[in-house]
Specification:
The protein is 44% helix and 18% strand. With 367 residues, the protein is of the alpha/beta class. The strands form three sheets. A seven-stranded mixed β-sheet has the order 2-1-3-4-5-12-11, with helices on both faces. The protein is elongated and about 65 Å long. Bound molecules: beta-D-galactopyranose (GAL). Beta-D-galactopyranose binds next to loops.
Length: 367
Amino acid sequence: MKRGMLTDCLTTVIALAIAAGCGRKKEVEKPAGSEKTAGRQITIGLLMETYDVARWARDEEYFTKRAEELGAKVLRAVANGDQDKQNQQADTFLTQGADVLVVIPRDLKTAARIVKSAHEKNVPVLAYDRLILGCNLDMYITFDNELVGYMQAKGVLEKVPEGNFILLGGASSDNNAALLRRGQMKAIREHEEATGKKINILDDSFLDNWDKEEARRKISNLLTRFKAEGKPVHAIIASNDGTAGGAIAALKAEGLAGAVAVSGQDAELAACRRVVEGTQTVTVYKPVRQLASASAEAAVRLARGELPDEIAAALGVKLHKLNNGTIDVPSIYLSPIAVTKENMRDTVVQDGWHSEEKIYSETAFAE
Ligand code: GAL
């Protein structure tokens, strides 16, 4: 898929429409969103969770660029993995007059307080990439996380059609980790039914954090245990590239890197290098520019009082409903892309995510 396909073609139309303030009038009463912003600049409060995983700096960069192109001002804060801190940062933005909040939550549940505080001030909230549970969230834009999980398992199953698998889940505080697992299990079940082959799941658990070192320790312990039990590990379905890196480091220590199939997600540079090197089987590329641009546009429109179905129509995408335990959250799912050695150039490189030189350079495998 070409870079920014979703948004680029709509950019001009949307920019003109927003500049003219021509969002249709609200037809139903809703808790947040308002027309109090008519005719003036929108201020967006962007609440980042962390920069620890490489993608997030690019999410922030693309989001800010798009929002500024649309004439909005962006207040930014990073919580460094601390939900209490993020909740305070949200309060600060509300005091500073933010018209809409865009949140990458750390904790799927306690981030709900942000939505409550924002709604008290009639400010809408958009969840970016990760859902917030137990609240009247206004909108959610993400990549189809179940499909990401499906692609991860499928990529591994193509290389290892039967045997002993470890499912290395992501942060238990992130709703995406559960959605990924659902997609992974779907792929495994479908594969078993279609081929009659059996996948033996040796371990199925989640980490506390999306953390490479935590993943390395966990896999290292499991490898020791299964070795003692006489059970060879054939594949590890890791839920992102950082944790895949940890798993592969543990495999390397046992002389098993390259012999065990491993999945990931995010098309991080180190992971792309491992994929071409052969120690990682598959990563999933999520064209972050699309997510960032669509979210910036949706945020501006929410602040202008537009409804999610109007926003989805303006963006030319389908509106889904995803239950968060309190309501069916109007949600937009963008499409991820599975990346292996075979299509690396046609996806990640062609889209400008990483240069060919960086992925394939001779020094690439030094790490
Ligand atoms: C998830 C996200 C992934 C990955 C991970 C670690 O919520 O969907 O793309 O980046 O967090 O930050």
